[in-house]
Amino acid sequence: MKVADLLELAGFAGASVWLKMDGERATHRWTVIVSCAEHDLRHRRDVNRFDQVVKIVRDELSALPGEWAWLDDEIEDLDEFAQHYEELGRQGAIIVVDSTGEQPLRAPSQSA
């Protein structure tokens, strides 16, 4: 499974997962929001590493009623995903990713 699959499957199950990478912050650059209106869930947390984001998503979703066995699947592109967005963050970008795709809040700074 890839990160995009995790987000998409969460959406199919009725949950929303938003990931934000803010390279401007010195610490806690990753923000994760997990919500599910049907079960009155809204969880927001800022963390330092992307593997912590995935753990939070898995923990929050698995606490909800339903079939979540797929949450245990290995994330194949965990490091690649994190490195890509952390590099964009170092360039000054703020990016939100959810099941609809990437949504830049601020594009990377352009070097002259």
Topology:
Layout lengths: L2 H10 L3 E7 L7 E7 L4 E7 L2 H13 L15 H13 L3 E5 L2 E6 L6
Antiparallel strand pairs: 1-2, 1-4, 2-3, 4-5
Give the number of helices.
Answer: 3
For the residues shown, what is the average pLDDT?
85
Oligomer state of the chains in this structure: single chain
List unreliable stretches of 5+ residues.
none
Fraction of helical residues: 25-40%
β-sheet strand percentage? 25-35%
Order of helices and strands: HEEEHHEE
The main β sheet shows up as: 5 strands, antiparallel
Rg over alpha carbons: 14 Å
Overall shape: it is globular
Give the termini separation: 39 Å
Q: Give the spatial strand order of the biggest sheet.
A: 3-2-1-4-5
Describe this structure in words.
By secondary structure, the chain is of the alpha+beta class. It contains 3 helices and 5 strands. The chain has helices at 3-12, 50-62, 78-90, and strands at 16-22, 30-36, 41-47, 94-98, 101-106. Strands 3-2-1-4-5 form a 5-stranded antiparallel β-sheet. The chain is globular and about 40 Å long.
Features:
29% strand, 5-stranded antiparallel beta sheet, alpha+beta, globular, single chain, 112 residues
